[in-house]
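Continuing the series of single-chain predictions for the mutant panel. This is the parent chain; the variants come on the following pages.
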Amino acid sequence: MNAPFDKSATSRQDAAARRAEIAALVHYFPGVQVWFGVYTRHWWALHDGRLYMGRTPAHIGEQIAGVRGQAWPSPNVHGADPRPPGEPAGGGGAWR
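Parent structure:
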């Protein structure tokens, strides 16, 4: 049963959406490893030996595009900016 209160249906939808975001980022940035931290609730990427963290896939895309000198095509992979109004871009950072 997939009623609105069925948490397993929501979890499957969330997982499918995350897989789509990961696939889009990997397609746009070949060679970059991307994942969602279920415990941290943040997005992560590994690029050229640096670890990046962001609150959304868009934050990861913005950071990697900036390092690579590429243009980032939209606020996020699917074209809608998920940040709450007034939240600055970024929301993450890179570590060596």
